[in-house]
Design a protein that fits this description.
Elements: E1 3-6, H1 13-25, E2 30-33, H2 44-54, E3 57-58, H3 62-67, H4 78-90, H5 93-100, E4 105-108, E5 113-116, H6 132-138, E6 146-149, E7 156-160, E8 166-169, E9 172-174, E10 180-184, E11 198-203, E12 207-213, H7 217-226, H8 231-239
Parallel strand pairs: 1-2, 2-3, 5-6, 6-10
Antiparallel strand pairs: 1-11, 4-5, 7-8, 7-10, 9-12, 11-12
Bound molecules: zinc ion.
Zinc ion binds near residues 8, 10, 61 and 151.
Length: about 240
């Protein structure tokens, strides 16, 4: 069975729609969402609803928590804070209630996968996994074959071999018997790996790999401009930073 994992949509409905169109054209049967439906971009209502309609598991991100008033915005930089405050005003109550039903983490035993936004070690601390050391520590905090995370907006795959050795892969890895994997699926709505295209992850019987999709960035940026969202957030979409 082929499934997709998407994360960090950040109110970017153009990017989300482009990804879902690609997914529909493929043999993907199920989609999981890893958090941050909202924050930064111009369409929080549409993105929350679309994620809820298309995904079979939904995880909460730190921006989602902040918009729901469950996380202090002091933890965010000034641009993120402005976008969160704008989102709080903009979003309708029904979609906030939808968002509130998303989970902090989910283990899906039948697929042998674990889903969390930041880290399996302490999901509510909103730490990042960047290095082999970060990965090595976090492998102790899930017992499934694969753990998927989002949060940094930078896709990666860490593989822990049966010998205990941990290696990293950039774009793809073939699944092997005794190995376990820690995967950042990248960001749909605000990629930060110097590739402006929407990013998501696919898993089939034999491999884990990423897909990139072009979307109408100009349209998203024009809406952000119209709503008075910070120019830094508007410009960074063009560069994937
Ligand atoms: Zn995010």
């Amino acid at each position: 069975m082929i499934y997709a994992i998407i994360s960090d949509v950040h109110s970017n409905i153009e990017a989300l729609t482009a990804v879902l169109i690609e997914i529909k054209k493929s043999k993907i049967e199920e989609i999981f969402f890893l958090g941050d439906a909202v924050g930064y971009g111009p369409n929080p209502d549409e993105c929350t609803k679309t994620v809820n309609d298309h995904c079979s598991a939904m995880i909460l991100g730190n921006h989602d928590m902040a918009v729901l008033g469950l996380l202090d915005i002091e933890f965010f930089n000034v641009y993120a804070q402005q976008a969160i405050q704008w989102t709080v005003q903009k979003m309708n109550v029904n979609n906030k209630l939808l968002l509130k039903k998303f989970d902090m983490l989910r283990k899906i035993s039948q697929k042998d996968i674990f889903l969390v936004h930041s880290t399996p070690k302490k999901p509510e601390m909103w730490a990042y996994i960047y290095t082999l050391w970060d990965a090595a520590e976090n492998f102790h905090y899930f017992d499934t074959k694969i753990c998927f995370v989002g949060h940094s907006h930078k896709p990666f795959i860490f593989e822990k071999k049966p010998s205990g050795e941990i290696v990293s892969h950039k774009e793809r890895v073939s699944l092997s018997e005794g190995s376990r994997y820690l995967v950042n699926v990248g960001s749909v709505g605000q990629p930060r790996d110097r590739d402006h295209r929407a990013c998501y992850c696919i898993v089939n019987e034999g491999a884990i790999f990423f897909r990139r999709v072009e979307y109408d960035i100009k349209m998203t940026q024009n809406k952000m401009l119209k709503y008075g969202l910070p120019s830094y957030l508007i410009e960074r979409l063009s560069y994937g930073i």
